[in-house]
Design a protein that fits this description.
Elements (H helix, E strand, L loop, with lengths): L11 H11 L2 H19 L5 E3 L11 E5 L3 H10 L5 E2 L18 H7 L2 E4 L7 H17 L1
Antiparallel strand pairs: 1-2, 2-4, 3-4
Helix pairs in contact: 2-5
């Protein structure tokens, strides 16, 4: 972001869509937890990947992963197999309006280098997640 900005508008269309989605909220939350659980259990033996933990009452919007090594190469490998994932949000201190030295925020600077999101679409099947996990295992076996 180039500047600090706020957008508190909530349109009628957004309101209508939000109200419609409330009906499926419980089902969506269950699915998101299941996706996260499937990644965690299928990647448990891979020491180079850690799936971030959530408390039982928390719902992960995405599956956050920490690649101990080779995050960017893993992302490129997955993309080469048509698996989209992306790096984690930029830490605030490196964005233009909040620019500060990395020395002041060593932890977030270091952690950012390794965090990324695994595919977390509600349309994913168990088979899709197992396939992605197998690709990750394959990547770390070769690297």
């Amino acid at each position: 972001h180039n500047s600090v900005g706020f957008n508190f508008k909530f349109t009628n269309l957004q309101s209508a869509m939000g109200l419609a989605q409330i009906k499926s909220l419980k089902k969506r939350c269950i699915k998101l937890k299941k996706i996260n659980y499937l990644y965690k259990t299928n990647l448990r033996a891979i020491k180079q990947i850690k799936i971030l933990e959530f408390k039982q009452n928390e719902v992960p919007l995405w599956t956050d992963a920490y690649a101990v090594t080779k995050r960017d190469k893993l992302i490129d490998f997955l993309k080469s197999k048509n698996i989209e994932c992306r790096k984690f949000w930029y830490p605030l201190h490196i964005q233009r309006p909040f620019k500060e030295s990395n020395n002041k925020f060593k932890n977030s600077s270091e952690v950012y280098k390794n965090l990324f999101w695994l595919p977390s679409s509600l349309n994913l099947t168990n088979k899709d997640i197992v396939y992605i996990c197998n690709l990750i295992k394959k990547f770390y076996e070769k690297n």
